[in-house]
Amino acid sequence: MNNTFSADSIKISDTAKVRIEQILAENQEKGATSFVRVSVVSGGCSGLSYKLDFDSEEKPKDQVFEDNGIKIVTDMKSLLYLLGTTLEFSEGLSGKGFFFNNPNAARTCACGESFAV
To answer: I want to staple 2 with a disulfide (CB 3.0 to 4.6 A). Which of 39, 40, 53, 64 is the partner?
Structure first.
């Protein structure tokens, strides 16, 4: 059974929304209906790493919610680490891509790919 969480579970910034919509539109042209799947996995310099995928199939224990018009799916364990996090997107000089602004992270590694709580 899927649960619906409030919009402040994981937030989607306006810049991330624009890029996600572009990716989803490209997938729809290929005949796939997709959504954003975020998770936290073991690994990286600080112990935990973020994982972001575009998926089209929900799993039975997925936690499903929406923010800024974007459907977000995660597992319950990951959600506990991600509550209050904002998914951002940057095209700046320091790199292009998605990144997580996580208030729960006690420390992050220098490359910004992993964190610890």
So the answer is: 64
